Cof-type HAD-IIB family hydrolase
Amino acid sequence: MTPKLIALDMDNTLLKSDHTLSHKNATILKKLHADNHHIVLTTGRPFPNVQPFLTQLDLSKNDDYVILFNGGVVKNISTNETLLNKRFMLSDMSEIFNLIHNLKLPIDIVCPEIVYSIAEFGQSNYVNLIGKLLHYQQVSITDLPTTLTFNKFVVCETEDKLNYLENILNHTLVLTKNISFTRSRRTLLEFVPTNVSKGAALKVLLKKLSLTSKDLIVFGDEANDLSMFKLATVSVAMANAIPLIKAAATDITSSNEEDGVATFLSSYFNI
């Protein structure tokens, strides 16, 4: 029973492919939470797209936290206190935006309450990923204030096009010196401020809660979960995880469609 913080990626890890939380996963997490384990959702999503699941899991204690924007924000669910809030300024993005625009790829800017689709860059499929809890607006980039701040921007495209973009970005370090980028799914490349990651955010939270990596279990399936796996004593890859994550894991459980989170936790904690 040693681990005291269970950190869970959401999409394709905790949630099923239809973006729902199963009764089996919810039941075991609520039981562990009642036994004073910290249950922390670690996601690329903004708060409005996470809040219904926090309610479903009864995460409302004064020491309950959520990690958003791939580690850009660490937020107390009860008090709204933020331990961390890393943001971009639009005025600093011209070079990287121009590079992406020249490749004829779309960009969506993700703020805490709204997503801006940049009209000049073309319509992406991101609007179909964010659901109805977050406002989505297509705008010209010249209509956005240069003082606009935001936690991340994304390129949502085919896997092949994102592979090509990543290869170019890895060879243009000058343009990306203040930017980190990672895949949260094969068709979504996410950009956050430099040194932002789920693992870095978990370090901040562990310190706040007077815990260490020995107290940590993490679950994930994609490249943006790798920093958590490098930090945790116990790291659990889903059966549907990419090979990179499976290779980094201490354990592999069944898929998100088969309630892999509940399967592992019920065995680990013998409940």
Remarks:
- Residues 23-34 form the longest helix (12 residues).
- The chain has a mean pLDDT of 95.
